[in-house]
Amino acid sequence: MRGAAEPPLFSALTVAAHGERLIGSEGDGDVTLYRGWLARDRAEALLASIRASTAWQQERRKMYDRFVDVPREQAWFGDDRDRPFTPELLAVRNELQTLTGARFVYVLLNRYRDGRDSVAWHSDREVQGLAHPVIASLTLGATRAFDLRPKRARTDIVSIDLDHGDLLVMRGGTQTHWEHRIRKDARIGSERINLTFRQQPA
Ligand SMILES: O=C(O)CCC(=O)C(=O)O
Question: How far is the CA of 9 from the centre of ligand 1 (A)?
Fold first, then answer.
Protein backbone atom coordinates (compact mmCIF):
# COMPACT_ATOMS: atom_id res chain seq x y z
CA MET A 1 0.00 0.00 0.00
CA ARG A 2 1.19 3.53 -0.72
CA GLY A 3 2.26 5.55 2.33
CA ALA A 4 0.28 8.64 3.35
CA ALA A 5 3.26 10.92 2.64
CA GLU A 6 3.56 9.84 -1.00
CA PRO A 7 2.15 12.16 -3.68
CA PRO A 8 -1.01 10.99 -5.44
CA LEU A 9 -0.30 8.62 -8.29
CA PHE A 10 -1.67 11.10 -10.79
CA SER A 11 -1.96 14.82 -10.28
CA ALA A 12 -4.87 16.72 -11.81
CA LEU A 13 -2.34 19.19 -13.25
CA THR A 14 -0.80 16.65 -15.60
CA VAL A 15 -3.52 16.63 -18.23
CA ALA A 16 -3.93 19.16 -21.03
CA ALA A 17 -7.29 20.91 -20.99
CA HIS A 18 -7.61 22.20 -24.55
CA GLY A 19 -8.65 20.16 -27.55
CA GLU A 20 -8.48 20.73 -31.30
CA ARG A 21 -11.59 19.81 -33.32
CA LEU A 22 -10.57 17.47 -36.18
CA ILE A 23 -14.04 16.95 -37.57
CA GLY A 24 -17.24 18.41 -36.26
CA SER A 25 -20.74 19.26 -37.37
CA GLU A 26 -23.54 18.53 -34.90
CA GLY A 27 -25.08 15.09 -35.58
CA ASP A 28 -22.60 14.22 -38.30
CA GLY A 29 -19.67 13.39 -36.06
CA ASP A 30 -17.39 15.21 -33.70
CA VAL A 31 -13.76 14.28 -33.08
CA THR A 32 -11.51 16.34 -30.80
CA LEU A 33 -7.78 15.79 -30.28
CA TYR A 34 -6.08 16.67 -27.00
CA ARG A 35 -2.36 16.64 -27.83
CA GLY A 36 -0.25 15.43 -24.89
CA TRP A 37 -3.32 15.12 -22.69
CA LEU A 38 -1.33 12.89 -20.40
CA ALA A 39 2.02 14.38 -19.41
CA ARG A 40 5.01 12.27 -20.44
CA ASP A 41 5.95 10.97 -16.97
CA ARG A 42 2.39 10.07 -16.26
CA ALA A 43 1.98 8.33 -19.61
CA GLU A 44 5.16 6.34 -18.83
CA ALA A 45 3.80 5.34 -15.41
CA LEU A 46 0.48 4.24 -16.89
CA LEU A 47 2.21 2.25 -19.64
CA ALA A 48 4.42 0.51 -17.06
CA SER A 49 1.42 -0.37 -14.88
CA ILE A 50 -0.50 -1.75 -17.88
CA ARG A 51 2.49 -3.84 -18.95
CA ALA A 52 2.75 -5.25 -15.42
CA SER A 53 -0.93 -6.02 -14.88
CA THR A 54 -2.43 -7.06 -18.22
CA ALA A 55 -3.11 -10.58 -19.48
CA TRP A 56 -3.46 -10.06 -23.23
CA GLN A 57 -5.72 -12.14 -25.46
CA GLN A 58 -5.63 -12.60 -29.20
CA GLU A 59 -9.02 -13.28 -30.72
CA ARG A 60 -9.59 -15.54 -33.69
CA ARG A 61 -12.24 -14.56 -36.21
CA LYS A 62 -13.85 -16.51 -39.01
CA MET A 63 -12.84 -15.23 -42.45
CA TYR A 64 -14.68 -17.05 -45.18
CA ASP A 65 -13.93 -20.75 -44.52
CA ARG A 66 -11.12 -20.42 -41.95
CA PHE A 67 -10.24 -18.84 -38.62
CA VAL A 68 -7.50 -16.19 -38.49
CA ASP A 69 -5.80 -14.37 -35.59
CA VAL A 70 -6.88 -10.77 -35.16
CA PRO A 71 -3.68 -8.72 -35.82
CA ARG A 72 -3.39 -7.20 -32.34
CA GLU A 73 -3.84 -8.22 -28.71
CA GLN A 74 -6.69 -7.07 -26.48
CA ALA A 75 -7.79 -6.81 -22.86
CA TRP A 76 -10.82 -5.43 -21.04
CA PHE A 77 -11.19 -3.88 -17.58
CA GLY A 78 -14.29 -2.38 -16.01
CA ASP A 79 -17.32 -2.36 -13.78
CA ASP A 80 -19.05 -5.04 -15.86
CA ARG A 81 -15.95 -7.07 -16.83
CA ASP A 82 -14.10 -10.05 -15.30
CA ARG A 83 -11.28 -7.67 -14.36
CA PRO A 84 -12.17 -4.43 -12.53
CA PHE A 85 -10.41 -1.17 -13.34
CA THR A 86 -6.94 -1.05 -11.80
CA PRO A 87 -6.30 2.02 -9.58
CA GLU A 88 -4.28 3.59 -12.42
CA LEU A 89 -7.04 3.01 -15.00
CA LEU A 90 -9.66 4.23 -12.54
CA ALA A 91 -7.77 7.50 -12.05
CA VAL A 92 -7.71 8.06 -15.82
CA ARG A 93 -11.35 7.01 -16.18
CA ASN A 94 -12.39 9.55 -13.54
CA GLU A 95 -10.52 12.40 -15.24
CA LEU A 96 -12.01 11.49 -18.60
CA GLN A 97 -15.48 11.54 -17.07
CA THR A 98 -14.80 15.04 -15.76
CA LEU A 99 -13.49 16.16 -19.15
CA THR A 100 -16.30 14.69 -21.25
CA GLY A 101 -19.30 14.54 -18.91
CA ALA A 102 -19.83 10.90 -19.98
CA ARG A 103 -19.87 7.87 -17.68
CA PHE A 104 -17.45 5.16 -18.79
CA VAL A 105 -18.09 1.62 -17.48
CA TYR A 106 -15.25 -0.23 -19.17
CA VAL A 107 -12.05 0.19 -21.13
CA LEU A 108 -10.89 -1.84 -24.12
CA LEU A 109 -7.13 -2.06 -24.54
CA ASN A 110 -5.67 -2.78 -27.97
CA ARG A 111 -2.00 -3.71 -28.12
CA TYR A 112 -0.23 -3.28 -31.48
CA ARG A 113 3.03 -5.15 -30.97
CA ASP A 114 4.65 -3.38 -33.93
CA GLY A 115 3.67 -1.99 -37.34
CA ARG A 116 2.46 -5.39 -38.52
CA ASP A 117 -0.47 -5.12 -36.13
CA SER A 118 -3.51 -3.08 -37.14
CA VAL A 119 -7.26 -2.66 -36.98
CA ALA A 120 -9.24 -2.54 -40.22
CA TRP A 121 -11.85 0.10 -41.15
CA HIS A 122 -14.80 -0.10 -38.77
CA SER A 123 -17.09 1.94 -36.55
CA ASP A 124 -17.89 1.15 -32.93
CA ARG A 125 -21.44 -0.10 -33.23
CA GLU A 126 -22.21 -0.67 -29.55
CA VAL A 127 -22.56 3.08 -28.86
CA GLN A 128 -24.74 3.85 -31.86
CA GLY A 129 -28.03 3.49 -29.96
CA LEU A 130 -27.01 5.90 -27.17
CA ALA A 131 -28.52 9.40 -26.91
CA HIS A 132 -25.07 10.96 -26.32
CA PRO A 133 -22.37 8.56 -27.50
CA VAL A 134 -18.82 9.36 -26.38
CA ILE A 135 -15.65 7.30 -26.78
CA ALA A 136 -12.41 8.53 -25.20
CA SER A 137 -9.33 7.02 -26.87
CA LEU A 138 -5.89 7.37 -25.26
CA THR A 139 -2.62 6.47 -27.00
CA LEU A 140 0.45 5.12 -25.19
CA GLY A 141 3.75 4.06 -26.75
CA ALA A 142 4.61 4.23 -30.45
CA THR A 143 3.18 6.91 -32.73
CA ARG A 144 0.72 5.48 -35.26
CA ALA A 145 -1.47 7.03 -37.95
CA PHE A 146 -5.18 7.05 -37.07
CA ASP A 147 -7.34 7.31 -40.20
CA LEU A 148 -10.94 8.51 -40.34
CA ARG A 149 -13.25 8.49 -43.36
CA PRO A 150 -16.89 9.45 -43.85
CA LYS A 151 -19.08 6.50 -44.82
CA ARG A 152 -20.66 8.56 -47.61
CA ALA A 153 -17.27 9.54 -49.16
CA ARG A 154 -14.86 6.75 -48.39
CA THR A 155 -11.91 8.24 -50.29
CA ASP A 156 -11.92 11.47 -48.17
CA ILE A 157 -9.52 10.15 -45.55
CA VAL A 158 -8.46 12.33 -42.61
CA SER A 159 -5.20 11.02 -41.13
CA ILE A 160 -3.68 12.07 -37.83
CA ASP A 161 -0.54 10.82 -36.09
CA LEU A 162 -1.36 9.85 -32.51
CA ASP A 163 1.57 10.09 -30.09
CA HIS A 164 2.29 8.93 -26.54
CA GLY A 165 -0.24 10.63 -24.22
CA ASP A 166 -2.55 11.98 -26.96
CA LEU A 167 -6.30 11.73 -26.38
CA LEU A 168 -9.00 11.57 -29.02
CA VAL A 169 -12.64 12.09 -28.02
CA MET A 170 -15.26 10.88 -30.51
CA ARG A 171 -18.83 12.04 -29.92
CA GLY A 172 -22.28 12.22 -31.39
CA GLY A 173 -22.73 10.73 -34.84
CA THR A 174 -19.04 9.84 -35.34
CA GLN A 175 -19.67 6.08 -35.15
CA THR A 176 -22.81 6.34 -37.28
CA HIS A 177 -21.30 8.43 -40.08
CA TRP A 178 -17.56 7.71 -39.95
CA GLU A 179 -15.18 4.73 -39.90
CA HIS A 180 -11.69 4.57 -38.46
CA ARG A 181 -8.64 2.31 -38.64
CA ILE A 182 -5.00 1.88 -37.63
CA ARG A 183 -3.27 0.81 -40.80
CA LYS A 184 -0.20 -1.45 -40.97
CA ASP A 185 3.12 0.40 -41.22
CA ALA A 186 6.33 -1.60 -41.74
CA ARG A 187 8.44 1.30 -40.40
CA ILE A 188 7.08 0.93 -36.86
CA GLY A 189 9.20 -1.41 -34.74
CA SER A 190 7.73 -0.85 -31.30
CA GLU A 191 4.57 -1.30 -29.30
CA ARG A 192 1.54 0.99 -29.10
CA ILE A 193 -1.24 0.47 -26.58
CA ASN A 194 -4.56 2.19 -27.15
CA LEU A 195 -7.22 2.55 -24.45
CA THR A 196 -10.83 3.24 -25.45
CA PHE A 197 -13.04 4.18 -22.50
CA ARG A 198 -16.62 3.21 -23.25
CA GLN A 199 -20.15 3.78 -21.98
CA GLN A 200 -22.76 1.20 -21.05
CA PRO A 201 -23.96 -0.11 -24.44
CA ALA A 202 -27.56 0.70 -25.37
O1 LIG B 1 -6.03 1.96 -31.68
C2 LIG B 1 -6.80 2.86 -31.96
O3 LIG B 1 -6.48 4.05 -31.91
C4 LIG B 1 -8.19 2.53 -32.43
C5 LIG B 1 -8.83 1.40 -31.69
C6 LIG B 1 -10.17 1.09 -32.25
O7 LIG B 1 -10.44 1.36 -33.38
C8 LIG B 1 -11.18 0.49 -31.42
O9 LIG B 1 -10.91 0.16 -30.25
O10 LIG B 1 -12.31 0.31 -31.91
Answer: 26
Superfamily of domain 15-54+68-198: Alpha-ketoglutarate-dependent dioxygenase AlkB-like (2.60.120.590)
Residues 120-174 pLDDT 10s: 999 999 887 899 999 999 999 999 999 999 999 999 999 999 999 999 999 999 9
Question: Per residue in 32-57, is it b (16+ CB within 10 Å) or e — as a string?
Answer: bbbeebbbeebbebbbeebeeebeee
Q: Domain extents for the chain?
A: 15-54+68-198
Please work out whether the CB of residue 180 comes within 6 Å of at least one atom of ligand 1: yes
**Is residue 194 lining ligand 1, measured as CB closer than 6 Å?**
yes
